[in-house]
Design goal:
With about 425 residues, the protein is an alpha/beta fold. Among the domains are: about 210 residues, Aspartate Aminotransferase, domain 2; about 55 residues. The chain is about 35% helix and about 20% strand. A hairpin with a 3-residue loop joins strand 4 and strand 5. Helix 16 packs across helix 18. The longest helix is centred in the C-terminal third of the chain and has 17 residues. The protein is globular and about 50 Å long. The two termini are about 30 Å apart.
Amino acid sequence: MAVSGISRIQDVAPWRLCIGCGACVAACTRGGVTLHNVESEGIRPRFDPSICRNCTDCLEICPGNQFDRYSRSDPSTRGLYKSDEMGPLLEVWVGSAADPEIRRQCSSGGMISAIALYCLEKEGMAFVLHSGPDPERPWLNRTVRSRSREEVLANSGSRYAPTSVCEDLGGIERSDRPCVFIGRPCDAAAADMLAKRRPDLDRNLGIVLSFCCAGTPSTRGTLDLIQSLGVAKEDVRSVRYRGDGWPGDFRVAVEGAKRGEERRMSYGVAWGRLTKYVGLRCRICPHGVGDVSDIACGDAWHRHHADEGNPGESIVLVRTPRGREILKKAMDAGYVRLTPTNEGAAIRAQKELLRKHNEVFGRLLGMRIIGVFTPRFLGFSLFRNWRRLSLEHRARSVLGTIQRVLTRGLWRKSKLK
């Protein structure tokens, strides 16, 4: 379903299919790509026409162009462990980091941070490649390499703003040891596609960790939240989207004359506002549960009760034998505390995200009807999941998409500045 028809990497961003992962920077060996944060859109590439004119290397690893749900899964288990809703699945667990500081400070029980820390301290991996807050402009993200507990914690937690972690995949490729990669589902897919073309990168991707993702808001979303709290951009000392409890509040620490003051907004209100700034590519995404990873984690929302003071729990989706091996060792070493569960629990935990996934076929169909380019998604049960919706819901997913595309001018290329 939905072959993109795009033949040049330069057309991905103008057709609003770019997710700003930065993989095109890592893929280009001639320095022809640079990244820029477009406040209303996200991180976007710029291409040197003298270098990139006839090159398609970036396009082949671009998750805005194509995506194979089973590209990282073990072929020997592919037919045995697959789920229409959750993708490749070997095991499902629920639990949290064993360390109480990690569990409370990080998002949804700190599971990803705990696994990453285990890989650093016990598996001897060189560093964790992930995103963290920019210390100079805290409303932005930057790509970082963490090598210690302190650094992992400093760069932990959800960051609902543009990120381009794949830009530094070359650092993993050149490493003398395997590394931990943490990224959004689309980041993990890009890393996997590039690794299939780069043997050194493939060897050094010690483990790929991802998380359940409902889309990436633009920088404008965070800035508008900050402004709504009555804080000027130049007075922001730090921004935390959640954590310090489950799910925690959106928090802005204030600098300047009011240093030490903190403004807050509930997670539910903040995320509800941020969703308005999520771009087109994220709205047609069927892979928000981290299909192309070794382990994917998400909030165990089916176990969340606001009045119980639970510091956080994750649903843990083990997708590869490598992920299963690392997770067992992390449990045995006391880094995580987990209880086995099943696919049904995972579906209940992420029911809102999966409900949106069921609409993707209709949205893609609506876009194709009016001639708008779409990504090529392989291995997904898009039509089967869409058929589970009511007839009225299916019609709305198609016709509503057509209406939005036409009224918002999404049927023509954008002119990114």
